[in-house]
Write a structure and sequence with these properties.
The strands form four sheets. Strands 2-1-3-4-5-10 form a six-stranded parallel sheet, with helices on both faces. The N and C termini lie far apart (about 40 Å). By secondary structure, the protein is α/β, with parallel strands linked by helices. The chain has ten helices and twelve strands. The chain has helices at about 15-25, 45-55, 70-75, 80-100, 130-145, 170-175, 195-210, 225-235, 265-270, 280-290; strands at about 5-10, 30, 60-65, 105-110, 150-155, 155, 180-185, 190, 195, 210-215, 220-225, 240-245. The longest helix has 22 residues, at about 80-100. The model has no long low-confidence stretch (mean pLDDT about 95). Strand 1, helix 1 (about 15-25) and strand 2 (about 30) form a beta-alpha-beta unit. The chain binds NADP nicotinamide-adenine-dinucleotide phosphate. NADP nicotinamide-adenine-dinucleotide phosphate binds near residues 9, 44, 66, 67 and 165. NADP nicotinamide-adenine-dinucleotide phosphate binds near residues 69, 83, 137 and 154.
Length: about 290
């Protein structure tokens, strides 16, 4: 029998791509959001409401995508960031412990490469967040690891299906199509997966349910400027509009790590999966806009 999966934060950027894919592969999905229109909208800051809802819904797997992800806004509004990125996870793990109607109820918690700083490739032990978004996500990981969960540190690219939320590639493609100049960091390195590949790997985790912290990205990385150049080439856009800049040249509220490139060998070994090159992810991203 296919597993019943409760997706928290299902109406966000990642959730809007993940839920249809999980459904397509035959999983039973329950989508949690904060709106009245959401399939379920219990209050994640109320332990008894969460416990009551988990008892009724009785999922086999919970995937937690809830987060406050705007890096600069997290710095300005630490309470809001702490609520979404730490307290919600604390309440969730407490509720799972208290209810635990299914012995094998498994939590998959999504975290971020923003927990890293300094020289990459980063292994899972390297976490050293430098902004409040990264710090709060790291604290959230600590809460999630109190129960046997899978914590995935990710970064992803591709077209956003969430109304009102633009992805990195949405911003690049829209700006270049509108003939606008953009500043893109040439010294910020990341190793993202295309969102479809991330979703497929989350399905692997749903099936295998191995506990621990895992980096999940492409097997190598590149700078954001290089990413923009390669994407624009594949879409025949004007690359002269891309202005490669250093992080220091741009004034931002929160500090940013320069190198978030992840070593994904632990994930590959444990889940017996081979992760693709970042160039493959750019080809998939370009296809989103054709
Ligand atoms: N986007 C990226 O590039 C990226 C990169 C690395 C890691 N990640 C991680 O990937 C995961 C998913 O990110 P995403 O881009 O899909 O984020 P997103 O689009 O901002 O979605 C997050 C969802 O969480 C919900 N939420 C926020 N605070 C909440 C609260 N206090 N109670 C209940 N729900 C709340 C939001 O609801 P509303 O819609 O009602 O606000 C939203 O639907 C996160 O863990 C994030 O840290 C993202």
């Amino acid at each position: 029998m296919k597993k019943k999966i409760l997706v928290l934060g299902a109406y966000g950027f990642l959730g809007s791509s993940l839920c249809p894919i999980l459904k397509k592969f035959g999983f039973e999905i329950i989508k949690h959001g904060r709106n009245k229109e959401s399939e379920t909208n219990f209050n994640m800051s109320d332990l008894s409401d969460v416990q009551r809802s988990l008892k009724i819904l009785n999922p086999d797997v919970i995937i937690n995508l809830i987060a406050f992800t705007n890096v600069d806004e997290c710095e300005k509004n630490k309470n809001k960031a702490e609520m979404a990125n730490v307290k919600v996870v604390k309440i969730l793990t407490k509720a799972i412990k208290n209810v635990s109607m299914k012995n094998n109820l498994h939590l998959i918690h999504i975290s971020t490469d923003q927990v890293y700083n300094g020289r990459g490739l980063h292994t899972e032990e390297d976490a050293e967040p430098i902004n409040f978004y990264g710090k709060s996500k790291y604290m959230g990981e600590k809460e999630a690891s109190k129960i046997g969960s899978t914590i995935l540190r990710v970064n992803f690219i591709g077209k956003s299906n969430k109304a009102g939320k633009k992805s990195l590639s949405d911003w690049i493609v829209e700006s270049l199509r509108e003939k606008k100049k953009i500043n893109v960091f040439k010294d910020v390195i990341f190793s993202p997966l295309h969102i479809s590949n991330l979703c497929k790997n989350i399905m692997v985790v749903v099936e295998k349910q191995l506990s621990g912290i895992f980096n999940l990205g492409s097997c190598n990385g590149m700078s954001k400027a290089e990413f923009a150049f390669q994407l624009s080439k594949l879409l025949n856009l004007d690359e002269n509009l891309i202005n490669p800049v250093n992080l220091k040249q741009v004034k931002l509220t929160a500090d940013r790590p320069l190198n978030m490139q992840m070593n994904v060998k632990k994930y590959e070994k444990m889940f017996k999966v081979s992760l693709d090159d970042v160039k493959e992810q750019i080809i998939l991203t370009a296809n989103d806009y054709k």
